[in-house]
Specification:
The chain is an alpha+beta fold. Helices cover 30% and strands 31% of the residues. It contains eight helices and twelve strands.
């Protein structure tokens, strides 16, 4: 049996379905659909040079790799590769072939430093370290059982605070862009990112097929967007929050917790059974909020870094 590596064809539904299937098996705590996979490739920013790779064995997709440049970072030369193999198809060399192809592609694009997320398990960490990567920060995946768990009571907004949904900004989402751009600057990360391109944000975030505007919550203070919790759903019963934050001028008032609480309660009322989120391991305030809601850590991943040259 021979394993080959090739680029994913975004206009091929079989490719997208195979990619989503492997990712779901390897990362059951993240949301993927064939439609979202195809969208990410078709509408990727040109400067990202984003090209996912597939590893195939006798026509079956058994491994995947996200490969691209971190175009929205002020630091030049950053490349990103995230490799995942179907848990029942490991040991066939797919991971090594994907890593080699991804590294060669990024080097050819001028990347000088590579970043890769790796699940915190001995075999995954050994794979990265064998290839010359060094461990950096870590992050947690968290799960909340919406079907059988108990959410804290829904808090009422304080005076001067109004709760809205993302759908209420359909005609002009620019206030949410400004809020997202400000809060991401303070998100713990080894890679600095800046949201300065509104059109790119519209494509990559606002119009993304997984974004659920009805379940995205926004807290307004005297009419100004002050905090938000962005929600994604996969068309089934899985719900995830991908970003929760508060503008600097409004921090310390519990607005992020308020926005997330309203989103979670609406998600449960809409029939969603599993809530997922992610947290940098060093982000104590957000971890405390998620623990208060009842989230539990279900997996941990480690950022690995390798310098080229």
């Amino acid at each position: 049996m021979t394993v080959i590596v090739r680029e994913l064809r975004h206009d091929d539904p079989v490719d997208a379905a195979g990619y989503a299937r492997v990712r779901h098996q390897a990362l059951p705590f993240m949301l993927f659909t064939p439609e979202s996979i195809a969208y990410d490739v078709k509408y990727a920013h040109p400067d990202s040079h984003y090209r996912p790779l597939l590893a195939e064995e006798d026509g079956e997709v058994i491994g995947t790799a996200q490969v691209g440049l971190v175009y929205d970072s002020p630091e030049p030369g950053l490349g990103s590769l995230n490799i995942y193999v179907h848990p029942e198809r490991t040991g066939r060399g797919a991971g090594s072939l994907l890593a080699r192809a991804a590294e060669e592609r990024l080097a050819a694009l001028g990347a000088t430093r590579l970043h890769a997320w790796v699940l915190d398990a001995p075999e995954h960490r050994a794979f990265a370290e064998k290839r010359g990567y060094r461990a950096a920060r870590s992050a947690h995946f968290l799960r909340l059982d919406l079907a059988n768990g108990t959410l804290p009571p829904l808090p009422s907004p304080p005076d001067g605070v109004e709760l809205r949904t993302g759908a209420d900004f359909a005609d002009d989402p620019r206030p949410l862009f400004r809020l997202d751009a400000e809060t991401i600057l303070d998100e713990p990360s080894d890679t600095e990112r800046e949201f300065t391109d509104y059109d790119a944000w519209l494509t990559e975030t606002w119009n993304h097929p997984l974004l659920n505007r009805d379940l995205t919550s926004v807290a307004l203070v005297d009419g100004r967007a002050a905090a938000f919790s962005a929600a994604r759903t996969d068309g089934g019963t899985r719900y995830g929050t991908v970003m929760t934050g508060t503008a600097r001028a409004f921090r310390g008032r519990g607005l992020a917790k308020l926005a997330k609480a309203h989103s979670l309660h609406r998600a449960r009322a809409a029939g969603f059974t599993d809530a997922f989120t992610g947290n940098d391991a060093g982000n104590g305030p957000m971890l405390a909020i998620n623990t208060w809601f009842g989230y539990e850590i279900c997996a941990t991943e480690v950022k690995y870094v390798r310098d080229l040259g």
